[in-house]
From TrEMBL:
Pathway: Cofactor biosynthesis; molybdopterin biosynthesis. PANTHER family: MOLYBDENUM COFACTOR BIOSYNTHESIS, MOLYBDOPTERIN MOLYBDOTRANSFERASE. It comes from Tepidiforma flava. It holds the Pfam family MoCF_biosynth. This is MogA/MoaB family molybdenum cofactor biosynthesis protein. SMART domains: MoCF_biosynth (SM00852). PROSITE patterns: MOCF_BIOSYNTHESIS_1. Residues 5-149 form the MoaB/Mog domain.
Length: 161
């Protein structure tokens, strides 16, 4: 079981002008797969605020995996990948690629995402789009990986031959 933190990035969501659909969906799917949701938050599309929350959760060891939703597109306010890159220590490119490949099976617009997957300390940080359909598709990719990711990031793992 992995410990999951969820960060919704949305100007309107942070202002209470729009219901957060992505964050609750991530929580529902993660809990349904047996993972523990340990933290949730909503921040506006402000690079410094996103990076601050990601850094705080990762550095405190709050979660094994932080999943963000929102702010991964091409508009000028979409800065989640930049904030994520700012706190990243290592990339997990295969996860980001798998998310795009899976998304492309559903819509050509998946090619427009700029979401990243990175590690900071013992925490994996993954950016998902804000659209609930894209969130569900992204979680289809992530859920089977989470236990193993948490195990790998926790410390030395012996791989069988």
């Amino acid at each position: 079981m992995a410990r999951i933190a969820i960060l919704t990035v949305s100007d309107r969501g942070a202002a209470g002008e729009r219901e957060d659909l992505g964050g609750p969906l991530i929580a529902e799917l993660a809990a349904g797969a047996g993972h523990e949701v340990v933290a949730r938050g909503v921040v506006p599309d402000e690079r410094s605020l996103i990076a601050e929350r990601l850094r705080a959760w990762a550095d405190a060891g709050t979660a094994d995996v932080i999943v963000t939703t929102g702010g991964t597109g091409l508009t000028p306010r979409d800065v989640t990948p930049e904030a994520t890159r700012e706190v990243a220590e290592r990339e997990a490119l295969g996860i980001a690629v798998a998310l795009v490949v899976n998304g492309l099976q559903h819509t050509p617009f998946a090619a427009l995402t700029r979401g990243l997957a990175v590690t900071r300390g013992r925490t994996l940080i993954v950016n998902l789009p804000g659209n609930p359909k894209a969130v569900r598709q992204g979680m289809e990719v992530l859920l089977p990986l989470l236990d193993h990711v948490a195990e790998l990031l926790a410390g030395p793992v012996e791989h069988g031959s």
